[in-house]
Amino acid sequence: MKDFRKNPLIIAVLAVCSVLIVVVFVFSLVQVVNISETLSVSSPECDYHIGLYLPDVKQTLFADILEGARQFCNENNIALSVHTAGEDNDSLFAAPYIGADGIVIYSASEARETAEILDTIISRSIPLVLIGHGIPTNNPYCSIGVNNFELGRSIAEYATSLEQSLRPAIVYSEKSPGMYLERELLEMGFNSVADEYLAQPVITERTTLNSLDAEESVIRLLDEHPDINMIFFTNSDDTLSAAKMMVDFNMVGRIHTIGFSGSSEISEYLEKGILDAVVVVDGYTQGYRAMQSVYDICRYGNTASFVNTGFDFVTNPAALKTDKDGN
Asked: Which of 67, 173, 197, 326 is deepest in the core (most CB within 10 A)?
């Protein structure tokens, strides 16, 4: 039988194919790096280069995270490059190869591919910090964010101070992926306090990236579950949309509404009694502490495995004047 491995033509074809495969891979990698939204770049004068991956810097929370990250980098002579990290992982795929001394990621995905990318980063001895929520991997990393179990407990404690018979709904959002990806922790915390007050299990809804989707979600929730008496929104844009809708449709006071974030506009809705309470998560602190953690790993070789940045639960005092019987 003829040995094709000795055929010069076949050897040449295989060699060309191998080269093409490498070229295509490198080209794809370059394209992925190029489509990343780089807002700052490294320079020889900086001590370190840190890559920051965020789902969308236009969202209030992520804009605050970016501001905190920039502040720490400015204080410590660190070059910061900022990239978009969407659910498709296209940009995140390049993270291990951008030449950064450390990587900070707020991931919008919990897919297996995401964990594999994180493991690749760690296996290349690149310091890694995650913001918002944890992702199971084969290697340890530092995580920055809110203890969502405790957040669920705080929401339930407040809700049960208003109602003895709770019919709650939680509206998650694609615009706040961290909260959605840790929804089980949030609901476990809520149920651990509210269990004996629940007239029905917690109803959940998820809005899209459309900022107006919250209006349709609330209308759909009330149509399908007219007995709902408490709604918690996990995103600031959804909070604003729902609050405006409640005013337009004369629904203020019908449902206890807990919003998210502490923008001045949301604070006004709280002061006017349109919202009963607001959960405020400090994105600035999350961004600042994330950079501090990855900097500590770069400089000293270690940092805390989890940094709890906490939250504030701000209430409208007028809401507490209504007793548990609704009087």
From this structure: 173
Establish whether domains 36-146+284-308 and 148-280 are of one fold. yes
Give the chain's mean pLDDT: 82
pLDDT band at 10 (very low <50, low <70, confident <90, very high): low
Identify the residue whose tokens are 């995650």: 130
Q: Where are the beta strands (DSSP E) in the chain?
A: 48-54, 78-84, 102-105, 128-131, 142-145, 168-173, 203-207, 230-233, 256-260, 277-280, 306-308, 312-315
Burial state string for 155-185 with b = 16 or more CB within 10 A and e = fewer than 16? bbebbbebbeebbbbbbbbbbbbbbbbbbeb
C-alpha to C-alpha distance for 98 and 95, rounded to whole angstroms: 6
What is the homologous superfamily of the domain 36-146+284-308 according to CATH?
Answer: Response regulator (3.40.50.2300)
User: pLDDT of 223-266, one tens digit each?
Assistant: 999 999 999 999 888 999 889 888 888 888 888 999 998 678 88
Taking the C-alpha atoms of residue 48 and residue 90, their distance in angstroms, rounded to an integer, is 25
Query: Sorting pLDDT into bands at 50, 70 and 90, what band is 321?
Result: very low
Cα–Cα distances in angstroms (integers) from residue 162 to residues 152, 168, 252, in the given order: 16, 12, 15
Q: When comparing pLDDT for 171 and 85, which is higher?
A: 171
Mean pLDDT of 319-323: 43
Write down the domain spans for the chain.
Answer: 36-146+284-308, 148-280
